[in-house]
Specification:
This protein has 115 residues and is an all-alpha fold. It has four helices and no strands. 74% of the residues lie in helices and 0% in strands. It starts with a helix and ends with a helix.
Length: 115
Amino acid sequence: MSNFMQWVTHGIKRGRFEMSRRTILYVSVVVALLVVLATLYLMLVSQTAARGRHIEQLREELTWLQKENEQLEVEIAKASSIAHLRSRAMELGFVPAEQVEFLSPAAEEPAAQKP
C-alpha cells in the first residue's frame, strides 16, 4: 500500500478530520461566494427569460396588428372603388348629371349680362 493510501485509511480509521480555523474561514468564504454567484446567475437567467417572453408577446401583437392593417386596407380599397361609390351614391338618391356647366372666375356678374 502506498503512503497516500495509508494516510487516507489512517484518517478514516481515526474517525476525525481536523481543519484549522483559517481553512474553515477560507472554505466558508468560497462557499458564500459560490452561493452569491449562483443567486446572481439565477436572477439574470430569470430576467432574460421574462424579457424573452415579453418580446415574443410583442412580436405576436405586431403580427396581429399587421394582419388587421392589411384587412383594413382591403376594406378601404373596396369602399373607395368607383363601382362601390357609384352604387352608394344611387342608394343615397344622387343621379348622374345630364348637363355640366362650368363657371369661369373671370366672368362678369350674371345680373350685368342679362338686359
